[in-house]
Each structure stands twice: as structure tokens, then as C-alpha cells.
Amino acid sequence: MARQLLLNAFHMNCVGHICHGLWRHPRDRSREYLRQDWWNTLAGTLERGLFDGLFLADIVGTYDVYAGNAEAALAGAVQVPVNDPLLLVPGMAQTTRHLGFGVTVNLSYEAPYLLARRFSTLDHLTEGRIGWNVVTGYLDSAARAMGYERQMAHDQRYDRADEYMEIVHRLWEQSWDSDAVRYDRESGIFTDPAKVRPIDYRGRYYRVEGIHLSEPSPQRSPVIFQAGSSPRGARFAAQHAECIFVMGLSKEAVKQTVERITRELAAQGRRREDVRILAGLTVVVGATSREAEEKYAEYCRYASPEGGLTHFASSTGVDFSRFDLDEPITERKSEANQSALAAFTRKHQGEPWTVRRLLEQMKLGNRNGAFVGTPSEVADEMQSWMVEADVDGFNLVHTVVPECFEEFVDLVLPELQSRGIYKTAYAEGTFREKLLSQRRYFRAR
Where is FMN bound in this sequence (predicted)? Predict the structure, then answer.
């Protein structure tokens, strides 16, 4: 049987996520993000297409590095305004049966004891379909908003995150026995006290003593997603993640990232097949190649490369407004997103990066390319990336919504199914069982 790919939709509880400026397109309906029924309809489309999950990004703070303020981000809706992604999930779960939900939460500003309960609650309400994309944050604006002068140093954020993960997994996996809840009306005992125990954690960054407040949920631990690509981030992912999200401008670049992750997994006593690696994917599809190219050109007319530059400035910590269009970008040191910053250590087609080259690359409002073509041509590319870059599937980045998801479901998925590389029905079980064919988080074994 051919290897079957995994597929998540990639979205955010805001107007402008990754392909900046496309909210201006006359067919785009992302302004409806404030309505629960809009999200429920999207979830229904994804379940009709047998998507494994909806991956909801999030950010705490605003993109205020470009020109030293948030004006460009606010004017261009560059991930602001943005609402809480967790609150969308129960409504979407009520209108679907199989679709999973991978939700981003920044652990730097959340108490582990309370976040553990929130995810247990969502796991109960979704009947075992919740995942957590673990991030540590990279914006000084977030740190200031939360009462700090600046964010922690990059590697120190991950050191603290290691402690955090130890705490929440102890709460989820060790505090309650599976048979602790008796619900015995006759004896008047709901929970057997002998089968519930507090955790007692004392570390450098956290001290937590107490029982987990929720009874065991279907998965106990949510499926753990992670997107760390820096050396320290990759080590964190190899220690904790079950699904790892990677981005890259080419198959070769993604292949190298996957190889680095594989080496980190081995160093942690894990195998490549113990995780699922998903690459970012943007698709513009048409019935013919010409139609697809015309649609791509149409999208580009509404996209905002300037919005992409605003986003990328905060990702790297580099204020691109200080550079002339053709001035080589030489700045290196930052405590922001280290993998994004590392892009400037590599030349662009043999030449240093400049603002002009960045803007030229951001035709769709972001630095990542797009698969543009017929369903067959798009499927060819996806299949090629699976084989040559060794990815297990994709996070589908939205362009103009909802048409980008509807067209992918109606046009591309049948082509993938005809090749035997995409499922024709959902398997039963929890989100983890569907993605990883196992019931419990790997550390619990």
C-alpha cells in the first residue's frame, strides 16, 4: 500500500495570517472570522475533504519591529486584530465528528497548572480530538504587554519550556488513575481518593504542588505539535513533539531540516517514524494550467509584500525600514525567531539579501512559494515533496478563503485519492490514534 499523506488546514483567528493582503480580494471572506458559524462551516468543508486537522496559529503581542511601531501591522491586518483560538474549538467540534484541532498556545505567559486543565477540558469536549502546538514566543512586545521589560533569551525560553512540559505531562498522565472515577451512586463515592495523587514539582522556573483538576480525558495528553527549527528548538521538538511543522523555500531546504530533526530524534532515543513531519504548503489550483496561473496573478495583485515584510521583521527582529532597497542586510544578532534569522546567513542566488529581493519573493505576501497548476500538477508536487523531502504531509496555508479550501477539497483531493496516497474514509479513534496509530503520548509508556 502506498504511503498516505496527512493534511491539516493552516489558519488563525484573525483576518491576515500568512498570505498578507489577500483580505482585500473581493471573494475573500476572512472578515467573518468573528462569527462562530463561519468557523463551523469551514470545519465542515475540511471534514468533507477528510482533512486530519485544523491547525490554528496564534501570536501574543504585535509586530512592532518594522519602523519601531505597530502601525504597518495594524493598517495591513498583519495578524492583528487577533482573537483567542481555543474558544473556537468547542463549536467546531459540535459540527464535526473526526476533524482534529491543533491549537497554538504560548506557554511563556500561561500557568502550567491552569493550561493543563484547559486542554483536558477541550479533550473531553472534542472526545479526544485536541492537539497543542507548543510555542515559547519571540516578541518583545508580548513580554512588555505581560509586564516584563523584554523576553527571555532564546535558549533560556526553551529551558523553561522543558520544565513546563514535565509539569503538564505529570498532571495529565500521573495524577489520576484511569479507574479513579467510580461514579457510584449507591456508596456516594464519585472519585476514589486512593487513586488520585498530587504532583510535587520543584524546578528552576516553576514550583507546582497539587492534583490535576480534571478527570482523565480520552487522550490524557493532547497531541503535541512543535515548529522549532533552531538547534535548541529542534532539540526541544525531538524531546517532546509528536508532529513537527517545518517551513522551507525548496525541497532541498526542507529535506535538510528533516535530516537535522532525524539526528536530534536519534540523540533522544527516538526514531524518525515516531513523529510526523508536516511542511507548509500554499496551493493555487485551476482546471487548466493557464487558469491556475491567471488566478495566481490575480491573487498577487491583492497581496501585500509590505505586509509580509512587516511580519518577517518581527520574526527576525530586524527592522528592514532602516535599509535602502538594495542595501545588503547584514544584521545578525537577535533573540527573536532564530530559524527565520538564520535565513540571512545564506545568500540569495549567490548575492546578499536585500529588501528588494525580499519584496520580490513575497508575491503572495509571504516568503514561501506556491504550488500553482492543475490538480494533477499540484498532486505531482506534493508527491514529490513526500518522497524527496521525506515529509509525512502538509499544513495547507490559506490564500483567499473559503475558496482555497473548497477548491482543494473538490479538485486536488480526488486526484490524490486516485493515486492511493490519500485516505477515502476516516479511521476511528482519537486525534493521536488517527495521526500516529497509538493511544497514549509516547512518554507515558
Answer: 58, 104, 154, 158, 229-230
- Give CA–CA dist 236/264, Å, rounded: 9
DSSP H or E stretch at residue 183? strand 181-184
Helix runs in 149-250, H state only = 154-174, 231-240
Of 257, 292, 293, the C-alpha closest to 278 is: 257
Find out whether 200 is annotated in a ligand binding site: no
Name the β-bridge partners of 268. Answer: none
Nearest in space to 311 (alpha carbons), one of 139, 55, 154: 139
| Cβ atoms of 204 and 188 closer than 8 Å | no
Instruction: Encode the chain (445 residues) as per-residue pLDDT tens digits.
Output: 578 999 999 999 999 999 999 999 999 999 999 999 999 999 999 999 999 999 999 999 999 999 999 999 999 999 999 999 999 999 999 999 999 999 999 999 999 999 999 999 999 999 999 999 999 999 999 999 999 988 899 899 999 999 999 999 999 999 999 999 999 999 999 999 999 999 999 999 999 999 999 999 999 999 999 997 788 999 999 999 999 999 888 899 999 999 999 999 999 999 999 999 999 999 999 999 999 999 999 999 999 999 999 999 999 899 999 999 999 987 666 555 555 555 555 555 568 889 999 999 999 999 888 999 999 999 999 999 999 999 999 999 999 999 999 999 999 999 999 999 999 999 999 999 999 999 999 874 4
Task: Give me 193's grid cell.
Answer: 481518593
The response to whether 229 counts as a known ligand-binding position is yes
Amino acid at 128: G
**104 in a labelled binding site:** yes
On whether the CB atoms of residues 344 and 338 are closer than 8 A, the answer is no
* Integer Cα distance of 193 and 86 in angstroms: 31
> Is there a binding annotation on residue 384?
no
* CA pair distance 364, 308, nearest whole angstrom: 8
**pTM for the whole structure:** 0.94
The SS3 call for residue 273 is helix
* Rg, C-alpha atoms of the chain: 22
For strand 393-397 and strand 6-12, is the pairing parallel, antiparallel, or unpaired?
parallel
What 3-state class would DSSP assign to 207?
strand
What is the per-residue DSSP string for 402-424? THHHHHIIIIIHHHHHHTT-S-S
Give all domains of the chain, ordered by start, each with its CATH number: 6-444 (3.20.20.30)
Q: Nearest 5 degrees, angle CA 359-CA 364-CA 366?
A: 65
